[in-house]
Amino acid sequence: MSSLLILLVIVGGLVLYLLGIYNGLVQKKVAVDNAWSQIDVQLKRRHDLIPNLVETVKGYASHEQETLEKVIQARNAAVTAGGGSVKDQSQAEGMLTGALRQIFALSESYPDLKANQNFAQLQEELTSTENKISFSRQHYNDSVALYNTAIQQVPANFVAGFGGFTEREFFELDEAEKAAAQAPPQVSFS
Question: Distance (Å, rounded) from C-alpha 130 to C-alpha 22?
Answer without folding.
Answer: 36
